[in-house]
Amino acid sequence: DLVLADLNGDGKLEIVVGSYEGLVVALDSHCQKLWSTRLPAAPSRLVAIGTPAVLLVQCQDGQIVKLDGVGNPVGVAQAAGAATRRVQMSTPAGPRAVFGTDRGKVVIVAP
User: Fold this and answer.
1) Burial, 50: exposed, middle or buried (Cβ in 10 Å; 0-12, 13-18, 19+)?
2) Facing residues of 27 across strands?
3) Each residue's pLDDT tens digit, 42-89
4) Long-range contacts: 50-55, Cβ < 8 Å, 24+?
5) Which of 30, 70, 86, 93 could form a cystine bridge with 45, CB 3.0-4.6 A?
6) Residue 64 in contact with residue 109, Cβ under 8 Å?
């Protein structure tokens, strides 16, 4: 998966890519590597929320890993099954990411 997000609040969009090998890689607006983080399983869905962005990464094993703007894992949630869909939504309490799984489960995650 791929997402564009302002990771550091500088007003420029960075490119964040998840690879089948379990890496999440961030590139600057000139495609220079900023950071990479290895996750326990391959990322299947990426969501960026806010500015500077918080990244929510759902992995194929069902884990949803929260990464800060420099790629550090700062939280983990668990979903039953692999991600099949993801959307962002606004709520009175702030933005949320909604993940659907191949087992029919829905998980709502706050940044």
Assistant:
1) middle
2) 15, 33
3) 998 899 998 899 999 999 888 999 999 999 999 998 888 877 888 888
4) 50/95, 50/111, 51/6, 51/9, 52/6, 52/7, 52/8, 52/9, 53/5, 53/6, 53/7, 54/111, 55/3, 55/5, 55/7, 55/16, 55/24
5) 86
6) yes
Encoded tokens for 37: 């983080």
Q: Would the pLDDT of 12 be above 90?
A: yes
Give the burial class of 90: count Cβ atoms within 10 A of its Cβ; 0-12 exposed, 13-18 middle, 19 or more buried.
exposed
Query: What integer best gives the mean pLDDT of the chain?
Result: 91
Distance CA 39, CA 11 (A): 27
- Say if CB 24 and CB 34 are below 8 A apart: no
Cis geometry, peptide bond prior to residue 73 (ω within 30 degrees of 0): no
pTM of the model: 0.86
Phi, psi of 64 (to 5 degrees): -115, 115
